[in-house]
Specification:
This protein folds into four domains: 3-116, no CATH class; 125-204, Immunoglobulins (Immunoglobulin-like), CATH 2.60.40; 216-378, no CATH class; 402-599, no CATH class. The chain contains seven helices and 38 strands. The strands form ten sheets. The chain has a seven-stranded mixed sheet. Strand 2 (94-100) and strand 3 (103-109) form a beta hairpin. It is elongated. The model has no long low-confidence stretch (mean pLDDT 91).
Length: 600
């Protein structure tokens, strides 16, 4: 056999193989698919022949699905996807019948994997005007944007009036609403488009509605300007020119030297949760110099650079005054942002005593430590998720979800409240070792059972030393357990900051380390200032010690710090800090002051 004949035979064999593949992979499956189409249509015709009352009238279209034909036994054998044992789609395959020129015409659509009938099976395309997802403030009117066009691949451009619109939007109630747009083509193929409308309460719109159009800040002692952010109760001061909201904590968070407020505010900011940090708008705050003659002004003449957190200035305090009431003046003594010079800064208080009675501000040494009430500016478009603005039901923005039963306390957040045998603590922060640092809300004991201890006698230097029986530290670590349940606390190493003379934030000269179960609070830490929600009264020692003559951290007389030598044999009450064991879990509660987590 010559070479030409061999090449011819090879070509024929190749063509035969290619045709075999073409037959097996393309032609045979298509033949099988079209046979299945005919089988489906024939079954549908039998169905309508036996059920003539199902036939459509007028321009209507009637549909029978493959599933129905199986169910009613008009098909005995499954229609399968060619070359597989899988069945064709029983829900997406159907036969439609429509009267055309007096005769019934059948339209068959079969879906078998990638093989589908060449028949119109898609509904019209509905193009909406406006956004498909809309957000509007509660109380604002909802205006239906309408429909831009309706086009079908078979029927072409359709009338907008043919689209059915259903759904109501109640703008008086916060919620998520849907408006549904439905259209059918001439073969009754259906399309639905849904517009989602979220009716929300933004912080700015709520504050505006409460204050009215002509007012920019709350005055007196309003009952509807409370908001909980990062588990801390704030008061809404007012709204700025950019529609953002100015808030300040409802009470002092700690006692800090005026000279160190800015560095301490960094510490405070770092204890806010991430959600709240993201809502803060860096802003300029009033910091002008004032004296006793100009301190009553309502106009600010100097501002800081933009910063995340500040403290209230005299401007906010003055503008909030209404008669004798002013929510910007704390029960304790709190710094305002303005000073006179490097030697004089000012504190405010709801009321002063003695010869200072009736005054709004008093001048003090800037190196003294008094209360700090952080002030922040929050994005006005922040969404409120709950609350009525009252102290019982403050506004919330959903930045914290309450713990589930069985969740570990070390997975919870700064500011949440926990209860052990009805004695309430507040979370300062979780530690890397799995323990949780907490601070008691009030002092140990009751009015009838006054648990207190002395400074260390007549010694010139008062130390905080748990090993010294004459020390405040020894009393707290060894005797307080008689009054509170300490079984959930763990022995933990603490650092006692020691200062050269004055107690000044960040200026300790050394730190003494001890391992204890309980200690006094550090006056500079979160929630170490006197809480107005504490059921037990007033005074207590802090852990901050000094090498100076008779100096140690002390909070006295309704939360007022003592920036002076401690008198001999002075006795104050006890507030405690401890570290909860890492396996302590939440049993019940919401983590709020009203409903603290019960832990075990």
């Amino acid at each position: 056999m010559n070479k030409k004949a061999v090449r011819k035979i090879k070509l024929m064999v190749t063509c035969a193989i290619l045709f075999g593949f073409l037959w097996f992979l393309v032609l045979s499956p298509m033949i099988t698919f079209h046979d299945n189409e005919k089988t489906l249509e024939e079954a549908a015709r039998r169905y309508f022949d036996l059920n003539p009352n199902e036939l459509p009238t007028g321009e209507r279209v009637k549909t029978v699905s493959l599933n129905t034909l199986y169910h009613k036994s008009f098909l005995k054998n499954d229609l399968r996807i060619p070359l597989t044992k899988k069945t064709c789609s029983i829900e997406n395959s159907w036969v439609k019948v429509k009267r055309v020129n007096g005769d019934y015409k059948y339209f068959t659509y079969l879906e078998c994997g990638v093989l589908t009938s060449n028949i119109d099976h898609k509904g019209p395309t509905i193009k909406l005007r406006g956004d498909k997802d809309m957000t509007i403030d509660v109380g604002n009117a909802y205006e239906e944007p309408g429909i831009e066009s309706v086009v079908d691949n078979g029927d072409g451009k359709m009338k907008i009036e043919s689209v059915t619109v259903k759904g109501k939007v109640d703008t008086s109630k916060v919620g998520v609403y849907e408006v549904t747009y439905t259209a059918f083509d001439s073969l009754s193929n259906k399309t639905e488009e849904v517009r989602t409308i979220r009716v929300v309460r933004t912080l700015a719109s709520t504050v505006k509605a409460t204050l009215g159009e002509e007012t920019t800040n709350f005055k007196g002692d309003p009952e509807n300007n409370y908001i909980r952010l990062s588990n801390i109760l704030f008061r809404i001061y007012g709204i700025d020119k950019n529609n953002n909201i100015i808030v300040t904590t409802d009470e002092d968070i700690a006692n800090v030297n005026y000279t160190k407020i800015d560095s301490w505010l960094d510490y405070f900011y770092n204890h806010l949760n991430e959600t709240i940090q993201k809502t803060i708008v860096p802003s300029e705050y009033c910091d002008m110099k004032v004296d006793l003659e100009t301190i009553g002004t309502m106009e600010c003449t100097s501002y800081t650079k933009k910063k995340k957190v500040s403290v209230p200035s005299i401007i906010e305090v003055n503008k909030a005054q209404d008669g004798l009431a002013n929510f910007m003046r704390a029960q304790t003594m709190s710094w305002v942002a303005n000073s006179q010079d490097k030697n004089t800064a000012f504190v405010t208080r709801y009321y002063f005593f003695g010869e200072d009675q009736g005054k709004v501000y008093l001048p003090y040494d800037p190196e003294h430590y008094y209360g700090v009430r952080p002030m922040m500016t929050i994005k006005g478009n922040t969404l409120l998720v709950s609350g009525e603005g009252t102290i019982e039901k403050p506004y919330t923005i959903g930045d914290v979800k309450k713990a589930r039963g069985g969740e570990r306390v070390n997975e919870r957040f700064t500011g949440e409240y926990v209860s052990i045998d009805s004695f309430i603590y507040r979370i300062v922060d979780a530690q890397k070792d799995g323990t949780t640092r907490v601070i008691s809300l009030g002092t140990v004991g009751t009015a009838d059972d006054d648990v207190s201890c002395y400074a260390s006698g007549a010694d010139d230097v008062i130390t905080y030393n748990p090993k010294d029986k004459a020390s405040i530290a020894y009393f707290i670590n060894n005797r307080v357990s008689k009054y509170i349940n300490t079984s959930l606390f763990e022995l933990h190493e603490i650092e006692v900051p020691v200062y050269k003379d004055k107690i000044i934030y960040g200026e300790e000269v050394k730190k003494e380390k001890y391992k204890v179960k309980l200690s006094a609070p550090d006056m500079f830490e979160m929630f170490a200032a006197q809480s107005q929600y504490a059921t037990s009264s007033g005074s207590y020692w802090t852990i901050n010690a000094s090498q100076g003559t008779r100096r140690i951290g002390a909070i006295y007389n309704l939360g007022v710090p003592l920036n002076q030598e401690i008198p001999p044999y002075m006795s104050l009450r006890v507030r405690v800090v401890g570290y909860l064991k890492k396996d302590v879990v939440v049993s019940s509660g919401d983590g709020t002051f009203e409903s603290p987590y019960v832990i075990k």
